[in-house]
Automatic annotation (TrEMBL):
Keyword Iron-sulfur: no
Protein name: Short-chain collagen C4-like
Listed Basic and acidic residues bias regions: 135-148
CC per GO annotation: extracellular space
InterPro entries per the UniProt record, alphabetical: Ca-dependent_lectin (IPR051077), Collagen (IPR008160)
Biased composition (Polar residues): 106-119
Disordered: annotated segments: 80-212
Keywords (A to Z) from UniProt: Membrane, Transmembrane, Transmembrane helix
Signal peptide start-end: none
Biased composition (Low complexity): 150-162
Transmembrane portions of the chain: 29-55
């Protein structure tokens, strides 16, 4: 009986001990289940947070892009309004060419009325029926001096004067066209009639076979970095636009910089897409190393897009860029001054140098670097360049003058 009693105790104790292990295993299971649940919650929370952050970033980027586009549209509208206003009230820059031709046309005859010779531009009333009725505007500026009028009919012939003594014979020589011209004018000034100037020509007003030519201006230049010309009656704005050129990394393409208008026109046969593989890019300032410009018109210039303005000389016929000069020779008129700029020395694309205004503007909404045509300030390098007077590494100034 004793052995049976011990076995019974062992069996009871074994079952008791086995029963005590069940709660320990269940506790570990629920512990790991709780840890896994918390880990899943953390991963889901992190995923949601990253998704919200990504959406927020994309929305902010989209908002910035919309703001940039709005600023650019506002700038283009402002440039277009400046262009449309003009200095003589011409609607668009196209009519600047028409006005140039009109200014250079001579007044043919006094028999025609000014009403017939007038050039009517679209959008301007002519005073006839059906003309555009406009409100009174502000007084305009004084116009330019008009052309010389036609000479009136010849007066009655005066009494014949006393014949003078015969002069000494002159020296024979070659007489060119200018000599003939001066000879004929001298004869007319002395009262000796010319065979080509008949009585019929005199009555019709052809008073001078060789009229004196007067400079009428008309030459243009680009003011890089600005959207206006000088506030002067002797210079007028043809159009304001955007400076462009070939990409700095391209080996080919145009070496010229262009001032594209802000209101382009397209041919009816255009085809959008990469067809010709010759491209124009916007131009950016690259002045991170040193910025010598005045910032009265733009607080920041680095990576900003460059504007430009095409200007026309009204009463001067020649313009010239003077490098390494801050001013113009005597009797010349200064259009603007600034610094010489072009592409970088180790870039693939070669470009011409331009004179950028000393107080440049920047196209609004162009703070992001997109590369393209890049402008760097030109500096002198001693060696083959004579130093002095030039200084190694010093920025080269420039002035655009006219006469």
């Amino acid at each position: 009986m004793a052995p049976d009693h011990k076995l019974s105790e062992v069996s009871v104790d074994g079952e008791y001990l086995t029963g005590k292990n069940y709660p320990a295993k269940n506790g570990r299971f629920w512990l790991w289940f709780l840890v896994g649940t918390l880990l899943n919650v953390c991963l889901i929370a992190a995923s949601v947070g990253l998704t919200v952050m990504y959406v927020h970033t994309e929305l902010k980027s989209l908002k910035d892009q919309m703001q940039i586009h709005e600023e650019r549209l506002a700038w283009l509208g402002d440039a277009s309004s400046k262009q449309n206003a003009g200095k003589e009230g011409v609607p668009t820059w196209k009519y600047a060419q028409l006005r140039t031709r009109r200014d250079q046309e001579p007044q043919v005859s006094s028999g025609r009325s000014s009403q017939q010779n007038a050039t009517h531009l679209p959008g301007y009333g002519s005073g006839n029926a059906g003309g555009v009725v406009c409100r009174d505007g502000r007084d305009g500026r004084d116009g330019k001096d008009g052309h010389d009028g036609a000479q009136g009919p010849a007066g009655p012939a005066g009494p014949t004067g006393i014949k003078g003594e015969k002069g000494d014979p002159g020296i024979d020589g070659d007489q060119g066209s200018s000599g003939v011209m001066m000879h004929r004018r001298a004869k007319r000034a002395l009262g000796d009639g010319d065979s080509s100037l008949t009585a019929e020509n005199r009555e019709s007003g052809a008073h001078d076979v060789y009229p004196t030519l007067k400079p009428s201006g008309g030459e243009t230049y680009v003011r890089w970095g600005r959207t206006t010309c000088l506030n002067d009656t002797s210079t007028e704005l043809v159009y304001a636009g955007i400076a462009t050129g070939a990409h700095y990394s391209n080996k080919g393409g145009s070496v010229d910089f262009f001032c594209l208008p802000s209101d382009p026109e397209w041919a009816a046969s255009h085809n959008d897409g990469l067809n010709s593989n010759s491209f124009l890019y916007g131009m950016e300032y690259e002045v991170s190393g040193f910025d010598p410009f005045s910032h009265e018109n733009a607080e920041f210039l680095q990576d900003r897009d460059v504007p430009c303005a095409v200007c026309r000389l009204v009463d001067r016929g020649t313009q010239l860029l003077f490098p390494a000069k801050l001013g113009c020779p005597e009797n010349w008129t200064e259009e603007y001054r600034g610094f010489l700029m072009s592409g970088k020395y180790n870039h693939e694309q070669r470009s011409k140098a331009v004179c950028v205004d000393e107080a440049p503007e920047a196209i609004p909404g162009s703070k992001t670097s997109q590369d393209g045509a890049l402008l760097y300030i030109i500096e002198g390098q001693c060696g083959s360049l004579l130093c002095p007077p030039y200084v190694d590494g010093r920025e080269i100034a420039c002035t655009v003058c006219s006469i």
